[in-house]
Structures are given as structure tokens and as C-alpha cells.
Design brief:
This protein is an alpha+beta fold. The chain contains 8 helices and 9 strands. About 30% of the residues lie in helices and about 20% in strands.
């Protein structure tokens, strides 16, 4: 009799444990989903928090545009890989004869209406799609290294530079605190102070500031950073020349040059030595590292970003083909998350008709 009661008790206990287990699993999944989405963060910095800072920078933010690098122009072209590149990476992009490219040039500012004359930094984004439908997306900038070492540094910089409602300018105390917390930014500011103003997209060098891992057919791997080196020599603008330019002179110059023929950039990878930092984009690698030309980018046409083929593309630099992998650089993961939030926001604004200007239509207001 006692034995039966024990089995009865154990049976009831198993039922309750099963019920608790069934109820707990969805709760855990919901918490994990909310954590991933950034709705709860347990004290960690989320990509959603970082994304929200872009909307604070311009109020209200023009709907339908990218939150960073909002003003740009689409382009199309061809990537011509070098045969020797296939020894570094088994990616199909290096064994295919040519690869179609959809890209975008932009100035480093969120406001899509800002004058080109105000932007010292520019960017190049690329999407290469191979014949087996693999994609390689890149987001490069005209800077040799990043201004901060971590996503937290990027967030702190945006917060520190947010204008004070009373003065319309950033709080000097917050700026000073930021530099104390992130001293690597001083090095970047020194570089930026002496960097020339852009006179054309066509003669700019664009750098992939993060490290990636190339994997060859035989399993060997190399950590690399890449850059696009233009075939045209850089021309430096004087202050007088810059002030005389039109507000859209960079896009106008690109369209004018392409009427005379294609524009070219060589893609160069720098291969890291064992002790080079691969998880800190604020630290440039020594100039004597081995460099290999892995291909040539040929740009053949350009079009307005509101109606061009680049408009609906998220140039997430972590979308990679087999043979190329991300490093453990935390900035890469942060960029991917912020890009996703930006893409989803502007696509929603376009789909709901809130962004006529972003799709090349005039507002009815």
C-alpha cells in the first residue's frame, strides 16, 4: 500500500514538473528574443540603443533614408578578380571570371540634405553576387582606421556630441569625459585634422577598417584588411575651391566622369602578422605588412539613390561568401545590428508611404 502511494506521489510530481517545463520553455525563448531585439538588455549596450542615437542626431529624421551616410549615389560595375587571390581564399568571387557589382558612394553624414562641401569623409559600399548566388557585401570608408576601439566607444561618442538643448552645441564637459575614457580617438582626430577635403569620389581610397579571415581550399587561413586604391591620383581642394563648389558636386562629378568611360580601383588586401590586432579597428597595422592585389573594381554607371539599384540594399559587412569569415572584432557585430535596424526602419517608412522623397517622388503636402 505504501509502495502504491509512493508511485502515486512520484507520478503527480512528474506531471507538475512536465507542466513547469512546458511553461518555462516559452518564457525562456521570449526573454532571449527580447534580449536579442534589445527590448531588455541586463545592463549591456544593444544595437538598438546605438541605432536610436542616430534619430536623436536629427529631429525629426527624414523618413526613408539611411540613418548614417544618408546622402549618396548608386553605381553599377564589374569586379575582375586576380587569379592569385584564389590561393588566399576559396570564395567563388575569386575563381569566377567577372562578378557583377551594385554599389553606393556616400558622404559621412546622416542628414540626406547636407551639402557635400561639409563632409570630409566619404564611403564606398559594395555588393558582389556570384553565379552560385553567394553574396559579399562591404562597407568601406575613406579613413585608414576607426576612431574608437569598441561599440561602447562609438555610442559614447554619439552621446557626448549630442547638442545641448540650451546651447545647441555639445557639452564641453561630456566631450572631455569622452576623450578621457577613449583616448584612442585623439589619434584619429589628429589624422582627420590634416586629411584633405574630397574633390571627387573617383580619386578616393576606401578602407575596410575591420579584419576578416580568408580561408583557402587547403584550410589555411589569413587575417586581412582590404582597401580600394583608385587609378586616378588624388587632387586636394583648396578652401577657396571647396567653397565655390555646388552642394551636390561629388555626385555631379561622378556622373560627368562616367560619361567619358569607366572608373577603376584596385582591391588590395593587407595580411596580418600573428601579433597584429584583429579585434581593434582603431589600431592600424604596420606599413610593412604583406599586401596582395586581389582584383580590380570597374564602375560603369551611376544613378540617383532614390530610384537606383542600391536603394533597397543593406550593406551589412558581415554578409560573406564561403571562404571569408568575420573576425572577433566587436565593432563588426555592432555594425551588423545597427545596419539591420536602419534598414528595417527605412523599409517600413517606404512601404507605408511615409517617405516619398526617399523613393524619388514629391510629397503631396
Amino acid at each position: 500500500m505504501k509502495k502504491n502511494k509512493v508511485w502515486e506521489w512520484l507520478g503527480k510530481k512528474k506531471i507538475w514538473l512536465s507542466i513547469i517545463g512546458i511553461l518555462t520553455l516559452p518564457l525562456i525563448m521570449a526573454i532571449l528574443f527580447a534580449w536579442t531585439a534589445g527590448w531588455i538588455n541586463f545592463g549591456r549596450l544593444t544595437s538598438k540603443q546605438m541605432f536610436n542615437q542616430f534619430d536623436h542626431a536629427i529631429t525629426p529624421f527624414p523618413p526613408g533614408f539611411r540613418r548614417a551616410h544618408g546622402k549618396g549615389i548608386c553605381f553599377t560595375g564589374i569586379f575582375h578578380p586576380e587569379i592569385k587571390a584564389s590561393k588566399l581564399s576559396k570564395a567563388r568571387v575569386f575563381s569566377q571570371k567577372t562578378v557583377a557589382v551594385i554599389g553606393r558612394f556616400a558622404i559621412a553624414a546622416g542628414d540626406p540634405h547636407i551639402s557635400d562641401k561639409t563632409a570630409k569623409l566619404t564611403s564606398m559600399a559594395l555588393l558582389l553576387k556570384t553565379d552560385d548566388n553567394q553574396e559579399w557585401r562591404m562597407a568601406m570608408n575613406s579613413v585608414p582606421f576607426f576612431h574608437v576601439a569598441t561599440p561602447a566607444g562609438f555610442y559614447d561618442n554619439m552621446v557626448a556630441n549630442r547638442p545641448d538643448p540650451k546651447t545647441g552645441k555639445p557639452d564641453p564637459e561630456k566631450i572631455a569625459l569622452f576623450y578621457k575614457k577613449h583616448p584612442e580617438t585623439i589619434k584619429f582626430d589628429k589624422w582627420a585634422a590634416q586629411a584633405p577635403w574630397p574633390d571627387s569620389y573617383s580619386d578616393m581610397e576606401f578602407n575596410g577598417i575591420n579584419a576578416f579571415r580568408f580561408i583557402s581550399d587547403d584550410g589555411k587561413s589569413s587575417y586581412v584588411r582590404w582597401c580600394m586604391k583608385p587609378h586616378i591620383l588624388r587632387h586636394q581642394l583648396s578652401e577657396k575651391q571647396r567653397s565655390a563648389k555646388d552642394s551636390d558636386f561629388l555626385s555631379e562629378d561622378l556622373l560627368k566622369r562616367l560619361k567619358s568611360g569607366p572608373l577603376y580601383w584596385d582591391m588590395i588586401v593587407t595580411i596580418a602578422n600573428p601579433n597584429d590586432p584583429i579585434n581593434d579597428p582603431s589600431q592600424p597595422w604596420p606599413a610593412n605588412r604583406k599586401q596582395v592585389k586581389i582584383g580590380t573594381l570597374e564602375i560603369t554607371g551611376a544613378s540617383d539613390q532614390a530610384t537606383g539599384p542600391c536603394r533597397d540594399i543593406n550593406y551589412d559587412p558581415t554578409i560573406l561568401p564561403t571562404g571569408i569569415e568575420v573576425s572577433d572584432d566587436p565593432v563588426l557585430a555592432a555594425r551588423s545590428g545597427v545596419y539591420s535596424h536602419s534598414y528595417n526602419a527605412r523599409m517600413h517608412e517606404i512601404a507605408t508611404g511615409k517617405a516619398p522623397e526617399a523613393v524619388g517622388k514629391k510629397s503631396k503636402k
